[in-house]
Amino acid sequence: MTTVKQMRLVVQVDDYDAAVAFFRDTLGLTEEAAFSGGDDARVIILEAGRATLELANPAHHRYIDEVEVGRPVAPRFRLAFEVDDTEATTEAIKTAAAPVAPPTETPWRSLNARFDAPGDLHITLFQELD
Q: Cβ distance 111 to 129 under 8 Å?
């Protein structure tokens, strides 16, 4: 059996500089590597802590939107980042990403906030309360 050592989500972003500025400089993901090539080809690999793959059926996807936002808003893919303090991080990034829903306590005891981030990405910030 094969053992997976790392999961890397690769996202094509139209405004590369804005996405790098948000995820590296505002949200604080650590730059692991960056490469460039011909025709202005650029990529940056940002370290985001432990990676997990969360698979949800459509009913659960709708349920999470209802709990966190109160209505269906998330596209098929949503990035979730665990932070130490959802309220402080929300305050720090709210001018760089469009708030969708304020920090909300969930039934599973986390404090979650939603944003539309640069790169046309929908994100959740979450803080485990227990």
A: yes
Alpha-carbon distance 120 to 130, whole Å?
32
pTM of the model: 0.91
State the CATH number of the domain containing residue 116.
3.10.180.10
- Residue pLDDT, tens place only, 55-76: 999 999 999 999 999 999 999 9
Neighbours of 78 (CB within 10 A): 18
Tell me the CA distances in angstroms from 2 to 5, 55, 86, 112, one per residue in order: 9, 20, 36, 34
Domain extent, residue 120, equals: 16-128
Domain count, the chain: 1
Assess if residue 54 is contained within a domain: yes
Give the C-alpha separation, 36 to 8, whole Å: 18
* Cα–Cα distance measured from residue 129 to residue 102, given in angstroms and rounded to the nearest whole number: 16
